[in-house]
Structures are given as structure tokens and as C-alpha cells.
Amino acid sequence: MALTEEERGQRLAVIRKEIDRIDAQVIALLGERARFVEEVGKLKPSADKVRVPERERQVLERACQLAVEHGIDPSFVEQLYLVMFDYFVDHQQKQLSQRPEESES
Ligand SMILES: O=C(O)C(=O)C[C@]1(C(=O)O)C=C[C@@H](O)C=C1
């Protein structure tokens, strides 16, 4: 039987609450990932060593496999990761530029 306007409104509110809950988890996990990426950044000797294409390929391949397992379009996940890599590389480079020089420590 078709839903009434009111039932549709209630159902929409319930589903959107779930979406908000998941978004909060996604952002919290991104924050956790960012903190580990910062840790990796501390181990890098210089700005030209920040980008690691081979590692990005591995991460991307795994993410695309996981996307398929979870029924998401892997090319969508690939786009997301390419944006994330750019952001994290930029973040590590800023981190490095603020690092005191060896000679000063
Ligand atoms: O594994 C690293 O070396 C990282 O800095 C992390 C990370 C990532 O976001 O997964 C970021 C930049 C690199 O190009 C490769 C991977």
C-alpha cells in the first residue's frame, strides 16, 4: 500500500538521521586516517619524498577491490582517493615546511 505524505516524511527523517550518523563516522575515520598520515609524514626526510606513487597504487587497488565487495562503483572510490592523496600530500608538505631544520635542533 502506498505511503501517506506524513509516513513518507517520517521515513525520510529516519533515513536521513542514519545518513547523518554514517557521515559522522566517515569524518571521524578520515580524521583518524589523517593522524596516521601525519605520523608517516614525520618519517619522511624531505618534501620530494612525500609522494609515493607505488604506495598510492597499492592503496587505490585495495580500495577499488573493497568498493566492488561493498557494491560501490570503484571509479567513484578512485576519484575520492585521488582527491584524498592530493590533500594528504599537501598536508605532509606543509608539515615538513614547518619542521625545524636539523642544524637548528
Ligand atoms: O604511505 C605513505 O607514505 C603516505 O604518506 C600515505 C599516503 C596515503 O594517503 O595513503 C599519502 C601520500 C603518499 O603518496 C602515499 C600514501
From TrEMBL:
<dbReference type="InterPro" id="IPR002701">
    <property type="entry name" value="CM_II_prokaryot"/>
</dbReference>
<keyword id="KW-0413">Isomerase</keyword>
<dbReference type="GO" id="GO:0046417">
    <property type="term" value="P:chorismate metabolic process"/>
</dbReference>
<dbReference type="GO" id="GO:0004106">
    <property type="term" value="F:chorismate mutase activity"/>
</dbReference>
<dbReference type="GO" id="GO:0009697">
    <property type="term" value="P:salicylic acid biosynthetic process"/>
</dbReference>
<protein>
    <submittedName>
        <fullName>Chorismate mutase</fullName>
    </submittedName>
</protein>
<dbReference type="InterPro" id="IPR051331">
    <property type="entry name" value="Chorismate_mutase-related"/>
</dbReference>
<feature type="domain" description="Chorismate mutase">
    <location>
        <begin position="6"/>
        <end position="96"/>
    </location>
</feature>
<dbReference type="InterPro" id="IPR036979">
    <property type="entry name" value="CM_dom_sf"/>
</dbReference>
<dbReference type="InterPro" id="IPR036263">
    <property type="entry name" value="Chorismate_II_sf"/>
</dbReference>
<dbReference type="Pfam" id="PF01817">
    <property type="entry name" value="CM_2"/>
</dbReference>
